[in-house]
Amino acid sequence: MRAFLKYLARGVLLCAGLLVLSLSVCLAAGLFWIPEAGESDAEIPKVYVIEPKEEEQAGGETQTAENTAEQGTESPAAGKTEGGEGTAASAGADAGADSRTDSGAGPVKMLFAGDLFLTDLLQTKYSQQGISAAASEGLLSVLREADIFMLNQEFPFGTTGEAMAEKEYTFRVDPGYISVLSDLSVDIVTLANNHMLDFGRSPLTETLNTLDGAGIAHVGAGENLEEAKALKTFEVNGRTIGFLGASRVIPEYSWNASSSTSGLFTTYDASALVEQIKKAGESCDFTVVYVHWGVERSTQPEEYQRTLAKQYIDAGADAVIGAHPHVLQGIEYYQGKPVFYSLGNFIFNNGTYESMLVELTFGENGTEIRLIPCVSEANRMRLLEEDETEAFYRNMEGLSSGISIDSGGRVSRQTDADVSGE
Known about the structure:
Layout: H1 2-29, E1 87-89, E2 108-116, H2 120-129, H3 137-145, E3 148-153, H4 178-183, E4 188-190, H5 202-214, E5 217-219, E6 221-222, H6 225-228, E7 232-236, E8 239-247, E9 263-264, H7 271-280, E10 286-292, H8 303-315, E11 319-323, E12 331-334, E13 337-340, E14 353-363, E15 366-377, E16 380-383, H9 386-399, E17 403-405, E18 410-413
Parallel strand pairs: 2-3, 3-4, 4-5, 8-10, 10-11, 11-13
Antiparallel strand pairs: 1-7, 2-14, 6-9, 7-8, 12-13, 14-15, 15-16, 15-18, 17-18
């Protein structure tokens, strides 16, 4: 018996050694990975490249390759304009004449920022000092001058709900701080991100009601799928500007909006968003897609980001704006249209970091792009000093492909050929 137990013990040790060796080989080969501390976003690794079907199909409630349910539209609150009052437009309205070449229509200045979160420290300082606690006067002036200002609201407004179990970072802000967004001159936000349901679905409802009450439009989430995927449009200077929002980063599948459940519009499968972009082209002169994607803290876009961006532009998007990595990623052109893979953090945490605003001016001669470098210090964002901007622009050129940036932050393509991103 002792001899048997001795051989059994040797066998167990041998098997354990082989198991450790096998795991080491698999890790080295990249067959699987062990998440690092702090990684809480569950990514679905495969991107489906599927041509949308001509006929709408039923079957699933949430967005899948087989579900291209009827695409609804919704009108936002009125936006600010220069030289005239902006009005919301229904996405289902007749497109009319193509104002892209209509000399009677004026230019539209759009401004985009990355992730916004209101920390406890910022809330305290804002209550004492007002909006100057969050942004410098020079930055506020830039925000006010835009016809439309859009960012990623990386939190729900709410007082209800319970924090999601086992999620490292869960965000929620009292609805009373909606005045911060108004003071920042925000016109529209995307809610399609991996924190919108941190405290469940009731704060999402509070968020929608809070934004509606403040006259701030929103995309990417709603009380059902039709609301979450709805196009929002602004009429500015005789032009119709459309916005869509979607996320490719959610912690679990249940966050998807359905025909009867609130949630997010997601784009793991691109077909539903592609269909929305195509429909937007029927009524919009310029369509912006703001998508939550990528890997946190990575300055390089994933290949699937490039794949999705191409699909969006092929469908008719005029600009693709990205967020989620919390750091800046580069800029590329595809089919003459710009892709900003990540705008990084806007006003987000208590640290010191550089960021930027992207200014798109759409007019008779096409789209002009200008980068506006910023720096955040203790949750307060200001414009970068002029003597620091040159290094910032060169860094952005290094992260990007096929572009150049002049001393004023204006972006241009280096060649006439489109950059494939391959």
